[in-house]
Write a structure and sequence with these properties.
The chain is built from nine helices and six strands, in the order βαβαααβαβαααβαβ. The chain is α/β, with parallel strands linked by helices. α1 packs across α9, α2 packs across α3 and α6 packs across α7. Bound molecules: BIS(adenosine)-5'-tetraphosphate.
Amino acid sequence: MLNIIIFGPPGSGKGTQSAKIVEKYHLKHISTGDLLRDEMKRQTKLGKEIAKYIDNGMLVPDDIVIRELQHTVKKNCDRSGFVFDGFPRTLNQAEMLDNMLICNEMPVNIVISVDVREDELLKRLLGRAEDSGRSDDNEEVIWKRIEVYKSQSLPLVSYYSNQGKLVRINGMDPVEKVFEKITLAIDTYLLNKEVLVEVN
Ligand code: B4P
């Protein structure tokens, strides 16, 4: 199995790059953001609960996110691996993922951290807001999401770099150029079992 985490602040290109990675490497894309938004769209009781967090730029509680994730992973155990997009976002979620043995073994092989400057994040997300219809794509909530990323998700950088699994990618370039750097990191891992520290 090849399990990849794509990590980064809101607007760094996680969803954009995940779609390209799964196509090239034939993996299953699991975006916790998409799973949660689907639940919101269905207007279920749980969906309404989730909306209270997403609409305010806050993280959805771990127990809800883990349940959604486990359900999707279980249904896809026959796949050759996963791209986890937007998961984990807290140390607690990372530890839970490490202990998840749903499909026999599920080690995280490589964590791709996409680095983008804050002014560029804001520009991209405000650009997307024009037609995304997403309740969290407005300036006030975007800043809140960036703050939440810094306080709750950024500690994962040292968590995974201490495990020798983290590669930092400069995500300031156009989509195709960023993807070239990501494929270099993945191909290096597949060929040599080596995790590059950084691709600029
Ligand atoms: P997500 O759905 O993960 O949304 P996101 O962080 O905004 O990133 P996304 O992947 O959508 O955007 P991308 O950078 O690809 O999370 C939304 C919310 O769900 C969270 O705030 C949280 O409340 C909740 N949630 C999700 N997972 C959770 C978890 N594990 N635990 C708790 N809560 C959770 O793209 C942004 C824009 O940039 C697009 O318009 C794209 O076209 C553009 N873009 C991308 N790459 C570009 C490039 N290289 N150049 C120019 N533009 C680019």
